[in-house]
């Protein structure tokens, strides 16, 4: 009985952190107690943000990038706080900043084309004219013969050691198969969020 009283006194003021679930998109985290990204950022907004990504004349990654891939990728990071930290306005700012960065890195527009460069985000999923192999001496992630590590993804990944680190994080062999980032939009978004 005395031990119970001592333990109850030592635990006063030490409440357990609240853990929440918000369906498949965010579960088992304190950040899931807030809104999930799909509650405030929906398909029509994605379409408005990247209206030229499937353009027949200029887009090089037609029908590659989509809302579902973005939300699926973000579901790995929402329990860690991506787009779920703070009040809704702060969450929206974080997602907008991320997508703005993605749009800038994958644009095929300039000031002369319809809508300017920002309307043309998600036009590319890989570097079009790589000028080098991006292979550096690295003990842990050595270059693979015949493989080039040029920029691929929503926020392009360069160099063998970066492909190796990101591949390890997701248990995908990107060191031998960096092309996976230009074949799988969900993985490409995941790599960008991980960076």
Automatic annotation (TrEMBL):
Record keywords, A-Z: Carbohydrate metabolism, Disulfide bond, Glycosidase, Hydrolase, Polysaccharide degradation
GO biological process: cell wall macromolecule catabolic process; chitin catabolic process; polysaccharide catabolic process
Disulfide bridge map: 135-143
Enzyme Commission number(s) from the entry: 3.2.1.14
Listed GO MF terms: endochitinase activity
Catalyzed reactions: Random endo-hydrolysis of N-acetyl-beta-D-glucosaminide (1->4)-beta-linkages in chitin and chitodextrins
Protein origin, superkingdom: Eukaryota
InterPro entries xrefs: Glyco_hydro_19, Glyco_hydro_19_cat, Lysozyme-like_dom_sf
Glycoside hydrolase family 19 catalytic domain span: 45-194
Keyword Hydrolase applies: yes
PANTHER family: CHITINASE, CHITINASE-RELATED
Name of the molecule in the record: chitinase
């Amino acid at each position: 009985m005395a031990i119970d009283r001592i333990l109850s006194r030592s635990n006063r003021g030490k409440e357990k952190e609240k853990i929440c679930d918000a369906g498949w998109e965010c579960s088992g985290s304190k950040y899931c107690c807030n809104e999930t990204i799909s509650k405030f950022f929906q398909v029509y907004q994605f379409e408005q943000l990247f209206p030229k990504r499937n353009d027949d004349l200029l887009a090089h990654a037609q029908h590659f990038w989509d809302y579902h891939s973005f939300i699926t990728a973000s579901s790995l990071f929402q329990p860690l706080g991506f787009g779920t930290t703070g009040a809704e306005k702060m969450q929206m700012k974080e997602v907008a900043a991320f997508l703005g960065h993605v749009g800038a890195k994958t644009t095929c527009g300039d000031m002369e084309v319809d809508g300017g460069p920002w309307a043309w985000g998600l036009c590319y999923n890989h570097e079009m004219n790589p000028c080098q192999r991006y292979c550096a001496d690295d003990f842990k992630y050595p270059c693979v013969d015949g493989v080039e590590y040029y920029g691929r993804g929503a926020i392009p990944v360069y160099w063998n050691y970066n492909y190796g680190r990101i591949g390890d994080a997701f248990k995908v062999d990107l060191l031998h198969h960096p092309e996976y980032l230009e074949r799988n939009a969900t993985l490409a978004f995941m790599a960008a969020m991980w960076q």
